[in-house]
Design goal:
mainly alpha, Fumarase C, Chain B, domain 1, Fumarase C, Chain A, domain 2, 3 domains, two-stranded antiparallel sheet, two-stranded antiparallel ribbon, 18 helices, 59% helix, elongated
Length: 459
């Protein structure tokens, strides 16, 4: 392999000649061969936006030569178009705060910008990673800013996925509006309900989770860019912060603004923990809904058998004809993983000390991974499961008529104890509560039929 010699404050190392990254990135690769995982694409895109905004702000102030700023901006634009993805090589589990990732970005941009100006990679004659690409910046303000921008980028497809799932559930609520079934509490018979009402409640749970996530995401628009190392803004021009944030606001078309207190934003990962909490709530709702569907679809002959899920693949390598609730099972597994991500983010959030939380890289990875998983799982859940669900109306209505909880409607007419006797006798004999009420002449037959009609009770 052809190499080039680069120097940093610790000495010299040979870097692959074809690489756009440099010596500090190479040190991180050698120091942290941990997982093979990389920070998600949104972090790369967010950092490119930040570096471009910083360059243009510093050029406007007169601190960065215009040709250097243009070259940096061109390099950032190429990254935003998807180039150089293979050059961001630092492991997720790296030196604290994300300094290695920040330098990876600085070196790739510097080398490409030098190349655009006619200088070879690794020369840094015109543009240097620290002095020019990182001008007026620190990892401690750029990494949390990048986390905020990356989450805002990733949340847009998640919002679309959640809206799609909500629509699919509401469509089923309308389709099943007339299907009467037994309700269940404690996994025991309860008073009748409509299958459509159940799906409508699921849709509302998804809608509430979506609104909660949107509300927590608003705080991500408050940036500490310009705070540099500890939130004091050391080594920045007084105009730099407003100019850089204005550029980001214009490009992203979001209400981005400077933080009320730059030091608090540098110290705290609280906003990310709150967002993760919203994702956790959504994951918990998805797990609950998926498990309900698994129960209602259980069988086909020995379970509830109230609904049929679409058959998307064979369910067993040994039992012919078996079809499993594959998509709800996937949703459960995604939900469990998101709960693990939330636990990691919580641990990282409380690990901040004094002026900085150095656990940002693992928090960023887990937060973005949770968003990606939920977006993909929700879309598949809607398209490959919810949309194809059918109701077994006869089975639902038969179970509703057999439900012992029908006797609840008798309480105001024959009293709780007499109703309990009817329930016990129905369970013992297998006869319906309606038959027994008429036989024991506890009510006129017509009145009993009307009172114990599951359709009327489920309204």
């Amino acid at each position: 392999m052809r190499t080039r010699l680069e120097r940093d404050s610790l000495g010299t190392k040979r870097v692959p000649a074809s690489a756009y990254y440099g010596i500090q990135t190479l040190r991180a690769v050698e120091n942290f061969p941990i997982s093979g995982l990389r920070l998600p694409e949104e972090m790369v895109r967010a950092y490119a936006l930040i570096k471009k905004a910083a360059a243009q702000a510093n050029a406007a102030i007169g601190l960065l030569p215009r040709d250097a700023a243009r070259a940096i901006a061109r390099a950032c634009d190429e990254i935003l178009r998807g180039r150089f993805r293979d050059q961001f090589v630092v492991d997720v589990y790296q030196a604290g705060a994300g300094t290695s990732f920040n330098m990876n970005v600085n070196e790739v941009i510097a080398n490409r910008a030098n190349e655009l100006l006619g200088a070879p990679r690794g020369s840094y004659r015109r543009i240097r990673p620290n002095d020019h690409v990182n001008m007026a910046q620190s990892t401690n303000d750029t990494f949390p800013t990048a986390m905020r921008l990356a989450c805002l980028l990733a949340l847009e497809p998640l919002g679309g996925s959640m809206e799609g799932l909500e629509r699919a559930l509401r469509a089923k609520a309308r389709q099943f509006a007339g299907v009467v079934k037994s309700g269940r509490t404690h996994l025991q018979d309860a008073v009748p309900v409509r299958l459509g009402r159940e799906f409508g409640a699921y849709a509302l749970a998804v809608a509430k989770a979506r609104r909660h996530i949107q509300e927590t995401a608003r705080a991500l628009c408050e940036l500490n860019l310009g705070g540099t190392a500890v939130g004091t803004g050391m080594n920045t021009h007084p105009r730099y912060r407003a100019l850089a944030v204005a550029e980001l606001r214009r490009w992203m078309r979001l209400p981005l603004r400077s933080a009320e207190d730059m030091m608090e934003r540098t110290q705290s990962l609280g906003d990310f923990a709150r967002l993760s909490g919203g994702l956790r709530v959504y994951a918990l709702e998805l797990i609950r809904i998926a498990n309900d569907l698994r129960l209602m679809a259980s069988g086909p002959n020995t379970g509830f058998g109230e609904i049929d899920l679409p058959a998307i693949q064979p369910g067993s390598s040994i039992m012919p004809g078996k079809v499993n609730p594959a998509v709800p099972e996937m949703v459960d597994m995604v939900g469990f993983q998101v709960l693990g991500h939330d636990a990691t983010i919580a641990a990282a959030t409380q690990a901040g000390q004094l002026e900085l939380n150095v656990m940002m890289p693992v928090a960023a990875y887990n937060l973005l991974q949770a968003i990606h998983l939920l977006a993909n799982a929700g879309r598949v859940f809607a398209d490959r499961c919810i949309a194809g669900i059918t109701a077994n109306r006869e089975r639902c209505e038969a179970l509703a008529h057999r439900s012992l909880a029908l006797v609840t409607a008798l309480n105001p007419h024959i009293g709780y104890l007499n109703a309990a006797k009817i329930a016990k006798e129905s369970l013992r004999t297998g006869r319906s509560p309606l038959e027994l009420v008429i036989e024991h002449k506890l009510m006129p037959a017509a009145a009993a039929r009307r009172l114990l009609d599951p359709t009327r009770l489920s309204r």
